[in-house]
Amino acid sequence: MNNRISTGMMFNQSVSLMLASQAKMNHLERQIATGSKIVSAKDDPVSAGSAVGLDRTLASLDRMQLNAGNVQNRLGIQENALAQVGDMMGRITELTIYANNPALAAADKQSMVTEIEAIRGNLLAVANSTDGTGRYVFGGTDDGSPPFSQIDGRIVYNGDQNQRQVEVGPDTYVLDALPGSEIFMRIVTGDGHVDAAAAAGNTGTGVLTNVTRNGDGSWNGEGFSVRFTAADAYELVDAGGTVVSTGSLKTGDDIVVNGVRLHIDGVPAAGDTFEVSPSSSRDIFGTLDSLIGALKMDTGTPAQQAAQQNLLQSGLRDVARASERMIDSRASGGAQLKMLDNAADMRESNVVTLKSTLSQMRDLDYADALSQYQLEKTALQAAQTLFSQMQSMSLFNTIR
């Protein structure tokens, strides 16, 4: 077999060599210009695919950071709002204690009514707080309109009972602000388990100042009545109206019956009744309305004064439960804020790790790239020189 070396073949080889060298230089130039060693997926298909996956993870972390910022803003507004409500409840407690003074003048009581009504209005405004984007903090997931409104003098809740879960880190979720129904509406009465109230028709001056479980666990959760047969004697009446026991009361002592402890000041009259029942729920606005109504009562007789004081004492217990609810809600929000801090640390650590991995995959080693570029440039110059010299060579020169 004869191998034929022709002028055309030599030209084609030289041109191919120069084109390949130029292509390599162009690729190196793009790498140097972008700072990335993966200009296109064909440069390193495996690394390119992995890098796309890491980019998606970083984008997901950015979205989680945005979520965290939004929920942190809402939880911060909730914390500020609950702190304000706590201060309001403290002021209501002060006013109610002061109002328990039987010698208080009517003008003073009217001043208290005016202040409590102002606090009620401020409380409604706080309950309808927004997060700065037009969304209502205490509306649950139905937060596009004010969650609380006043209808026929009563405050009603228009939001829902749902609480959002927001992803703020890989497999890490925090709860958004509490729905307003859990903060302002469903507040237990009494001591949180048992409650009591004076009957409306009482004629004596007995005032129920405290009711609580006895602590021995003997209360069965059923309602009953303590009915006085004299100022210092009473009988226990079950829910069916049957007298089940009797007892006597000494001034300053508690009445302990059926696992419930009652403290009654003043002098009950024969026939006066105090009803004991499981705690129910009441909204904070209803509690304020009850206090306002009590302060507006006529107190011209000792029995009327006692009726007013019984209502005020009941209001005090309900305000205490509302204050506890504010504390519990703030604690819940604080726990979520702590989780946000932990999630931020985790996101930051993950971002550093992912960016370091991406750098190893993509970032160009400039020293190596410039060295290769210079090598290819030298090779191209040599090929160009060789090609220019070869142009003057011909087999005809040998024959001539």
From TrEMBL:
Annotated Gene Ontology cellular components are: bacterial-type flagellum hook; extracellular region
Keyword Secreted part of the UniProt annotation: yes
Question: What Pfam families does this protein map onto?
Answer: Flagellin_C (PF00700), Flagellin_N (PF00669)
Record's family? Belongs to the bacterial flagellin family.
Compartments reported by the entry: Bacterial flagellum; Secreted
* Superkingdom of the source species: Bacteria
The molecular function terms of the Gene Ontology recorded here are: structural molecule activity
Return the NCBIfam families for the record. Answer: flagell_flgL (TIGR02550)
Q: Please give the name of this protein.
A: Flagellar hook-associated protein 3 FlgL
Q: Its Gene Ontology biological processes?
A: bacterial-type flagellum-dependent cell motility
Flagellin N-terminal domain boundaries: 5-141
Q: Which residues form the Flagellin C-terminal domain?
A: 322-396
Which UniProt keywords are given for this protein, alphabetically ordered? Answer: Bacterial flagellum, Cell projection, Cilium, Flagellum, Secreted
